[in-house]
Design brief:
Shape: globular
Distance between the termini: 14 Å
Oligomer: single chain
CATH topology of the largest domain: Quinone Oxidoreductase, Chain A, domain 1
CATH architecture of the largest domain: Alpha-Beta Complex
CATH superfamily of the largest domain: Medium-chain alcohol dehydrogenases, catalytic domain
């Protein structure tokens, strides 16, 4: 037997509870993993609360992340004892996920956990940090360098924003952090932000073309925030968009794209190819100060994850929630 969060659909609606499960109930897959840590991401919070139709099949174990050790494998790349991490691939949506003491998945979905990270540190990074690094890689490939100018990170006190701020600052970029929680200014500056701006500057409708400031942007919010960020990007700059906490709409115009030649990169972390995932994790191992992961994350028990979900959706959680599934 093992414990997991289980989401079930009943006549009364969706229900979420801690359940005792057997190995025989695990879904089909090539690799069985003893999970050490998982996380509560924004998407997990939507799944747990049922506020958005994230879960496509019932019953479902949520959790789009996990880190642990291979227990059994029929896949040629993995053997018992291997340390692995998983992000995305529809786990927690169409396939049982990581808020569980065991998981069974396809071998191609796994990435070898870099030696520099413990399983807990891997989940302090999680999908949020892996997505942040995908954004950094997009800006780098566009040609945005530390000397190019300031980088704006929106939703900076959240998981993606926290890791993006820490990684960019270590790489030598000048990071300007935007957040609705201005009381987190000291926290963001400790991660390397040179300036902290109130999100109110970006969250209302603005001019389609504004004074050029940003060499690059990592946006986790969407809607007016993304539109205003694009409007102030410098000539031939770039924006990496990876979130929609502020809305799925994009109330912008073509002006910044045509008159300034800026580029908007959409960042998908769920179905990104394995080689890109391996590159992102290798870069996290090289470019993220592991000592800062304690500042970015807070550990909770599996029992606490259900109650934490509404707090995540309300934007009251700083950085990352790491879940110790053993307790």
């Amino acid at each position: 037997m093992f414990r997991a969060i289980l989401i079930e659909k009943t006549e009364a609606g969706q229900q979420c509870r801690i359940a005792g499960l057997e190995d025989a109930q695990l879904p089909e897959g090539e690799v069985t993993v003893h999970v050490a840590y998982s996380t509560v991401n924004y998407k997990d919070a939507l799944a747990i609360t049922g506020r958005s139709p994230v879960v496509r099949r019932f019953p479902m174990v949520p959790g789009i992340d996990f880190a642990g050790t291979v227990e059994a494998s029929t896949h040629p790349s993995w053997k018992p004892g291997d340390r692995v991490v998983l992000n995305g691939w529809g786990v927690g949506e169409t396939h049982w996920g990581g808020l569980s003491q065991k998981a069974r998945v396809q071998g191609d979905w796994l990435v070898r956990l870099p030696e520099v990270f413990t399983a807990r540190q891997a989940m302090a990074i999680g999908t949020a940090g892996y997505t942040a690094m995908l954004c950094v890689l997009a800006l780098e490939r566009h040609g945005v360098k530390p000397e190019s100018g300031e980088i704006l990170v929106t939703g900076a006190a959240g998981g993606v924003g926290s890791v993006a701020t820490a990684a960019l600052s270590r790489l030598g970029y000048t990071v300007v952090a935007s957040t609705g929680r201005t009381n987190e200014a000291a926290y963001l500056k400790s991660l390397g932000a040179s300036e902290v701006l109130d999100r109110a500057r970006f969250s209302a409708p603005g001019k389609p073309l504004q004074k050029e400031r940003w060499a690059g942007v990592i946006d986790t919010v969407g809607s007016h925030t993304l539109a205003n960020a694009c409007a102030a990007v410098r000539y031939r700059g770039a924006v990496a968009a990876c979130g929609l906490a502020g809305g799925m709409d994009f109330p912008s115009s073509v002006a910044p794209f045509i008159l300034r030649g800026i580029t908007l990169y959409g960042i998908d972390s769920v179905m990104a190819p394995p080689e890109l995932r391996r590159e992102a994790w290798a870069r996290l191992a090289r470019d993220l100060d592991a000592a800062r992961l304690e500042m970015i994350s807070r550990e909770i028990a599996l029992e606490e994850a259900i109650a934490a979900a509404p707090e995540v959706l309300a934007g009251r959680v700083r950085g990352r929630l790491v879940v110790d599934v053993a307790r």
